[in-house]
Amino acid sequence: MFPIANNVRAEREARGMTQSELGAAIGLTRQTIAAIEQRHYSPSLEAAFRIARLFGTSVDALFQWEE
Amino acid sequence: MSFRYKSALLSLVSMALIYAWFFVALVIHYRTGHPFNPVAHLAGTIVALAVIQIVGHAIIAGTSSDKYDAPDERERAFDRRATMVGYYVLIVGALLGIGTLHLGFDGPMVGDAVLFAIVFAECVRQSVFLIAHHRAA
Questions:
Q1: Is A20 on the interface with B (CB under 8 A)?
Q2: How many other C-beta atoms can be found within 10 angstroms of the C-beta atom of residue B60?
Q3: Is A58 within 8 Å of A21 (Cβ atoms)?
Q4: For a tag on chain A, would you pick the N or C end, based on fewer CB atoms within 10 A?
């Protein structure tokens, strides 16, 4: 598991989006969104900014470094 | 399972099985002197692999909704990692294949050894891609 926690699932579900819809909106596959939510994959900085921008929040609020 | 995962699995299994058949026949030929036409055998192997890949990919594409999707950053990362490992395996295998010259192997045997290195490296590349998919699924 990667040390970067995230609120992607909570933010996505709060907006009633599916993983496929989120992936399509930012150019990632559904599998990659699932991997990010389960902390099996850390997205690139560009993808992190795209997700944050889509949700109208900041990268800091969406992703947290956990020791 | 994504289209590219199924594609890599098909490529790995078909390549491993068909070239295993080729190399087993080759080893039997070298050990027993059993009649063997290596050019025809290799051509048959390549044609069989091409047919299986084309038909297999057509079937996979028919059952995958993501067949037209471009690979995203995660899949490109898997591909880079797999290609890097496969490249090193290919280099080591090719050098070992060429090294067989010093063991008294003749030209065709060295060629067969290099072909084995190429096939093995491709199988390793596909395997690393599949393992990376599993570990980050």
A1: no
A2: 18
A3: no
A4: C
| ipTM (interface pTM) | 0.80
CA distance B24 to chain A (A): 39
Per-residue pLDDT of chain B (137 residues; tens, 9 = 90+): 788 889 999 999 999 999 999 999 888 888 887 777 888 888 999 999 999 999 999 999 988 877 777 788 999 999 999 999 999 999 999 999 888 888 888 878 888 889 999 999 999 999 999 999 887 76
Residues above pLDDT 70, as percent of chain A:
97
Measured between CB atoms, which of B2, B69, B74 is closest to A41? B74
pTM for the predicted model, two decimal places: 0.82
Do the beta carbons of residue B5 and residue B136 sit within 8 Å?
no
B8, HSE (Cβ side, Cα atoms, 13 Å): 22
CB B73 to CB A31 under 8 A? no
Task: Count CB atoms within 10 A of the CB of residue B65.
Answer: 10
- Kindly state the tokens that stand for A39: 């902390």
Query: Residue B69 is encoded by which pair of tokens?
Result: 């999707």
Cβ count within 10 A of residue B129: 25
Element (DSSP H or E) covering residue B55: helix B38-63
Look at B72 and A29 and tell me if their CB atoms are within 8 Å. yes
- Please answer whether residues A33 and A22 qualify as being in contact, where contact means their C-beta atoms are separated by less than 8 angstroms: yes
Taking the C-alpha atoms of residue A63 and residue A5, their distance in angstroms, rounded to an integer, is 6
